[in-house]
Design goal:
The chain contains 4 helices and 6 strands; from the N terminus they run αααββαββββ. By secondary structure, the protein is α+β, with helices and mostly antiparallel strands.
Length: 159
């Protein structure tokens, strides 16, 4: 997946609105559209996209620790927000946009530094104006559950 390094690398609003959210996500995964710069910043990327489901992989590094030396909750939250909201995005029709209204994170155990995880978002509901998804973070090697989340997104028709 190609990552945006400057604002001009990102798709224009007109380009984004010309395709469904699923098409957008699939083109991003294929490297035809630039991925989000936050993925490079926080060490994660999309690895799977299908209708109603998106998977990201990443690993927390020392840069993401809080003063106690454990992975900051914001890292968990960002990965869950990304996978859950992108699961909603796969259901957004051409000519519409979406954004997160609220999300909740439950951390069940600390992720060891440098351990690869998968953050999976799965759609629960996609209507005309809202989308709801759940997410979980699991260790790739151990399969253990490290966090869960839920989100509500607003879907807005632009064109």
């Amino acid at each position: 997946m190609m990552r945006a390094t400057k604002f001009e690398d990102l798709p224009s609003q007109a380009e984004a609105l010309s395709m469904s959210g699923l098409d957008f996500m699939q083109r991003m995964l294929a490297g035809e559209l630039a991925g989000p710069p936050i993925g490079a910043t926080l060490n994660y990327e999309a690895v799977h996209v299908e209708k109603g489901k998106v998977v990201f992989r990443g690993a927390p590094t020392f840069d993401f620790c809080n003063p106690m030396g454990t992975v900051h909750g914001g890292w968990y939250g960002t990965l869950l927000d990304s996978c859950m909201a992108c699961a909603v995005m796969t259901m957004v029709p051409k000519g519409s946009v979406y954004t997160t209204l609220e999300y909740k994170v439950n951390i069940t155990r600390p992720i060891p530094l440098d351990m690869e995880i998968e953050a999976t978002g799965t759609i629960q509901h996609a209507g005309r104006s809202t989308g709801i998804a759940n997410g979980e973070i699991r260790g790739v090697a151990d399969g253990k559950l490290y966090a869960t989340g839920s989100t509500t997104c607003i879907i807005m028709q632009v064109a």
